[in-house]
């Protein structure tokens, strides 16, 4: 079923790069709810953000955590 909220924190892109590919993010985008889905990840790598953008997500800086200075948040709607 379409997803409203996606927590995408598997292994890091260095350990399992195939899970952080344009193809993976396209599948996630295709299964996102058309009324608005949000993807959150601890990863803030520029290539991950670029791949999300290329697949149609709107991408921004996520909340800071104890362990991470910056995270990533993405949505399939600009207003989310």
Q: What coarse outline follows from CA principal-axis ratios?
A: globular
Q: Which consecutive residue ranges, at least 5 long each, have pLDDT under 50?
A: none
Read across the widest sheet, the strand sequence of neighbours is 1-2-4-3
Q: What is the CA–CA distance across the termini?
A: 20 Å
Helix content: 10-25%
Structural class: alpha+beta
Largest sheet: 4 strands, mixed
DSSP strand tally: 4
Question: Describe it for me?
Answer:
- The chain has 80 residues and is α+β, with helices and mostly antiparallel strands.
- The protein has two helices and four strands, in the order E-H-E-H-E-E.
- A four-stranded mixed β-sheet has the order 1-2-4-3, covered by helices on one side.
Concise synopsis of the structure shown:
22% of the residues lie in helices and 19% in strands. The protein is an alpha+beta fold.
Task: Please tag this protein with its features.
single chain, about 80 residues, alpha+beta, 2 helices, 4 strands, about 20% helix
């Amino acid at each position: 079923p379409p997803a409203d909220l996606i927590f995408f924190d598997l292994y890091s892109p260095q350990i399992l790069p195939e899970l952080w590919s344009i193809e993976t993010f396209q599948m996630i985008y295709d299964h996102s709810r058309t009324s608005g889905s949000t993807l959150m990840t601890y990863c803030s790598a520029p290539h991950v953000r670029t791949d999300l953008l290329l697949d149609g997500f709107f991408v921004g800086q996520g909340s800071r955590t104890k362990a991470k200075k910056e995270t990533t948040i993405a949505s399939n709607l600009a207003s989310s």
